[in-house]
Amino acid sequence: MNLCLFITLLLTLTVSGSIINYNNDDDDAQMWLDIDLSIRNIGSRMNMNDTETNNIFTDKICFPDIGCFTRSGPMKHTTFLPQSPETIGTKFYVYHVSNPKLEHEIDPHHLQTSPTSMISNGKRLAFIIHGFGNSYTTERLVSIKDSLLSNTDDIETVIMVDWKRGAAKPNYIEASVNTQVVGRQITFMVNQMKNVLKLDPKNVYLIGFSLGAQVAGFAGKYSQTEYGWKYGRISGLDAAAPLFEKYPGSFLTKDDAIFVDAIHTSAGHNLIHGEIGFIEPYAHVDFYPNGGHNQPMCHNLLKISCNHYASVLFFDASVSAHNVCHFMAFGHCPNWSAFTEHKCTKSDGQMGYLADHFHMNGVQYLSTTNSYPFCNI
């Protein structure tokens, strides 16, 4: 079935109220339609909403603090230049373990007057980066923030990155290209913290969901080319594949941080089936729970984004339930079929927050349950 026809049917059912309400972060059929239509119309002037940066006579654009972008850069296959930082409107909100609900906006140019006491040099600093159509208030990402501040000993501060204007529906192409700008903005912020607050970038941990994972990848690339340092860790939560997979230089890889781990939960290219995540491994360790798609809590065909958001649920549970739940995974396993046939017997990895506690790499398989805390062990 054509995706447009399929999702139109879902939206019709939604409007009639006969099945499900899609006005939430978890299941947005319109979002999937936006992605499909954007990709189908790639190269068309109808997608060029920012007439300044995407003027057909402009091949290069430069911005203060984060440098220049060209049409021949890593996103050249889209033909787009990114929007300006002013248009994207990226903001950084910091939260501290002393009061996880209290937020403060911080500005990289005014760190000395910001609540810098909330940032400890001896602890790990986490950034959480949302994806397409989300914001820093997306409920399930806020839950990760709360879990990190309540259930870990090595994280006292979390920064939520809000680039909702640059990631707004309906233009997925524009949002994809904007990941370059936001990635550089994060790295500029961290480098300012390094210079002003003596923050060690090795203690900085980027957690990116969907397009947010690609933002983290660009942050990791820019930190090395511009400043000569690496982030300590990046976690890609079902990194967005459309316009990234198969385009070298555009997506998160294991070269972008000292340690990169990935959770694949909607691997594939069939949007009708809710497949939007990377198929191929790209990290130091790539976890494929339940084979990387068809997650056990996602039986309802109408919840088209369920598999994609499962990566967020699993990661959150790996933090909030870490005392009772261990997502033990199996490496040295040729494929998912071998795992299901019990041919993989050596468990040597753990998916989620504690992944960097294990000395393993490569592809790892595991199964989960269909309800919180999701682990089998």
From TrEMBL:
<keyword id="KW-0964">Secreted</keyword>
<comment type="similarity">
    <text>Belongs to the AB hydrolase superfamily. Lipase family.</text>
</comment>
<dbReference type="GO" id="GO:0016298">
    <property type="term" value="F:lipase activity"/>
</dbReference>
<feature type="domain" description="Lipase">
    <location>
        <begin position="61"/>
        <end position="374"/>
    </location>
</feature>
<dbReference type="InterPro" id="IPR013818">
    <property type="entry name" value="Lipase"/>
</dbReference>
<feature type="signal peptide">
    <location>
        <begin position="1"/>
        <end position="17"/>
    </location>
</feature>
<dbReference type="InterPro" id="IPR029058">
    <property type="entry name" value="AB_hydrolase_fold"/>
</dbReference>
<protein>
    <recommendedName>
        <fullName>Lipase domain-containing protein</fullName>
    </recommendedName>
</protein>
<keyword id="KW-0732">Signal</keyword>
<dbReference type="GO" id="GO:0005615">
    <property type="term" value="C:extracellular space"/>
</dbReference>
<dbReference type="Pfam" id="PF00151">
    <property type="entry name" value="Lipase"/>
</dbReference>
<dbReference type="GO" id="GO:0016042">
    <property type="term" value="P:lipid catabolic process"/>
</dbReference>
<dbReference type="InterPro" id="IPR000734">
    <property type="entry name" value="TAG_lipase"/>
</dbReference>
